[in-house]
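Reopening: structure tokens for the 5,6-dihydrouridine-5'-monophosphate complex, inputs below.
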Amino acid sequence: MFDPTEHPHRRYNALNGDWILVSPHRMKRPWQGQVEKLPPDNRPAYDPSCYLCPGNTRTSGETNPNYEATYVFPNDFPAILKEAPTPAGTPHPLFQAQQVEGECRVICFSPSHDLTLPEMELSAIQGVINTWADQVAELGQTYRWVQVFENKGAVMGCSNPHPHGQIYAQNDLPLEPAKEAVKQWEYYDSYGRPLLVDYVNEELKRDERIVVKNDHWVALVPYWATWPYETLVLPRRHVLRLPDLTGKERESLASIFKRLLTRYDNLFETSFPYSMGWHGAPTGNAYDNDQSHWQLHAHFYPPLLRSATVKKFMVGYEMLAEGQRDLTAEQACTRLQQLSDIHYKKNGS
Ligand code: H2U
Ligand code: ZN
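Re-run output (same inputs, fresh job):
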């Protein structure tokens, strides 16, 4: 008799077409491998040497204003440029190149150097959400894809602990959104309903993988999660893009974020590292076509596995074959569910 908590199996990622190997019986193996160093967690509210703090001068020589809420500036080292020449035609199918044009920006979430999203006030988190939505609305007039993301924690390669995120806007869809576009379109074509709208309703019915929810939002460990504590944040109604969210929905999203990220921090009593980002319907010239197959959502990909210092490595089989996990999505969800909505730093513990 198949038991998903005992027996190896593969799960299908309906959103991007990948498969992953689930090996729950491996949970008991010992760990003698690498232990990450914990970054110091005693930052000052203002750091005179931080490039992102208000009033400080960045590497470019520009000075940040004395901003009081969120602050957006053009990335001084942009990965994509506003104008780039088109590579020469494709003389051979094995050597293809494509032009890419766009803009990169940095968003400081708060003037306080020592905060992170879960430690911010709800109104300030809502301010970040509004900034994300405004940036998508503005850059989306020109660009087909606006990637809003946050890379958090030294273990994720984040260069600066000041609370911040980034935006890359570009003329066409990058790989991951392009995969999701195909899968969402195929589902919509077959069933006449958006894939992620059906998915959230099925997850609500099954009630096995939901970490937190409210009237407008659901945060869950997806059935096909690859990272140990990966989550997906989904609206309960069909919403194409961040700017389409109502004021009420933004307020309620701030609350879902605070609850989810507080649980993440509480899991190993550490400021939980992750990469997160938003996916919504394409913008720019995509406004000319019906994008009803898309549903707005945020992905959270945290690397930690067992403790504040032991992370999951995506190596070996993951690199050469397919993603693999030991802890099931349901077990990860249960652990997150059992945690408090009160941040451990406020707990006196
Ligand atoms: P991380 O969040 O991945 O560490 O990136 C920080 C970004 O901030 C990075 O893309 C930019 C870097 O180019 N940056 C500036 O634009 N100006 C600076 O003075 C420092 C960092
Ligand atoms: Zn700072």
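The chain has a mean pLDDT of 95. Residues 26 and 326 are 6 Å apart (CA to CA). Marking as resolved unless the reporter disagrees.
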